[in-house]
Structures are given as C-alpha cells and as structure tokens.
Amino acid sequence: MKKTILLTTLAALLVSQAGAQSCMANVKKSGLTVGTSPDYPPYESLNDRNEIVGFDIDLMNAIGKKMGMKVKVVGQGFDGLIPALISKKIDVIAAGMTVTAERKKAVNFTLPYDNSANVIMARKENLKYGTAASLAGRNVGSQIGTVQEQIVQGIKGASSKAFNLYTDAAVALQTRQIDAMVVDKTVADQFLKTYPDLRITGTLARNAKAMAVRKDCGDVVNRMNAAIIEMRKSGELAALTKKWLK
Ligand code: ARG
C-alpha cells in the first residue's frame, strides 16, 4: 500500500517535472512570445513607425538575451492578456501589470521590477479633484481590466468609465468627456507631456509590477528571475529605469 502511494507520488512528480521541462524546451525552440497592450507609455507604446517600444520591451529583450532566447512582442488589448497566456497564445505578459492576489490565482508572477503610486488626473481647472471622495458624482476614467478600473469602481458615488486603451481615457479627459482618471504616476507623467491641459491632482495607493507566466511554467519564471537578479546586480535594471521611468 505504502509502496503504491510512493510510486504514484513519484509518477506524479515525474509528470509535473516533464511538464515543466517541456515548457522551457518549448520556448527554447520557438522563442518567447511576449504579449503587451501598447497604450501605456513609458512601459509600452507605439512609436512613429508603429513599433512597440518601452521599458517592458527593453527589459524583456535583455532577459531573453540572458536566457539565450529570441523574443517576439505582440500587441493586444490589456483585458485579454491573461486569457491569451492561459490559452498559450503568448508565453509572457509584460504590460506594466500590477501584482494582485486575484491575478496570482491565475498566473505566476516574476520578481517585481517597479513600484509606483496611482494618481488622479484632471484638467487644470479641476485641481479640486485631489481625493477619492472628491470624485463622487463625477465620470472617472481608466482602462478595462486594470486595477485602476477596480479602484474607480470602489469610489463611492463615482461613475466608472473604462476604455479599451489607456490612451483613449487620456483623450476623453482632455476633450471633456470625463472629469478625471486614475492611472499610474509613471504613465501620468507621460500623458502630461502630450496633453497640456491635464494635471496630477492627487495620489492614491502604490502598486508593484511584474511579468506574468503560466502557472505550469515555473522553470521559465525561475530563469527570468535569475536574469532579473543579474540585471539588478549589474546595474542594467537601474539603467533601464533611468532611461524610461525617471
Ligand atoms: N498596472 C495596471 C494593472 O495591472 C494597469 C496596466 C495597464 N497596462 C497596459 N499596458 N495598458 O492593472
């Protein structure tokens, strides 16, 4: 009886090992397909030539290099990223994604690479929207499927307007279709450069960002984490942060 249990456990272990190995072997063969939502500068956005560029892209390319793998970046809507990962259309999510307990149930996060606050943005004549409470009765924007959408939905009396793209929320704010939006401070700083009428009017809670990999690809996460630690030590990560996020 004991022997059977032992054997079953052993077999289960071997199967899970094989699964993990094939995960790494697969990406070795085909390269890492990285999914992102390129509406979130400076983490990811489209340049003049319609190429996806940004902190997350440089970071993934550096990690890929250390892992000895090709990296291919594909753009799509933010709210479809976790489903695309689970259905194996992509291998990694690099999209300025916040680590949350809910997402942890579905995906495996790497070590965090960034930590920044959420802020409220409004037009310059509305500096009064400095706190969550001040947004009661207002139309408040964000992006569909983000933690910011959840924050806005949690603000008492506010009406949540979530857009497909974060850039669309910024346009809506500039053109008076919404009164305010909640967004990452790092991204707000970029939107300020594009939309001169916008201001940061308040600060909300901080959040950590990481890349996400499928649950059964622990070996890939381990290799990515090793690369991140190497980049922390060598100063490469600090250099990338300085280039894009400061
Ligand atoms: N940090 C937020 C979240 O994880 C927003 C990320 C949006 N990213 C993007 N590439 N549009 O929910």
From TrEMBL:
Pfam families according to UniProt: SBP_bac_3
Classification via PROSITE patterns: PROKAR_LIPOPROTEIN (PS51257), SBP_BACTERIAL_3 (PS01039)
Gene3D superfamilies with a match to the protein in the record: Periplasmic binding protein-like II
GO cellular component, one term: membrane
Localisation: Cell envelope
Stated family: Belongs to the bacterial solute-binding protein 3 family.
Protein name: Basic amino acid ABC transporter substrate-binding protein
Lineage: Bacteria, Thermotogati, Deinococcota, Deinococci, Deinococcales
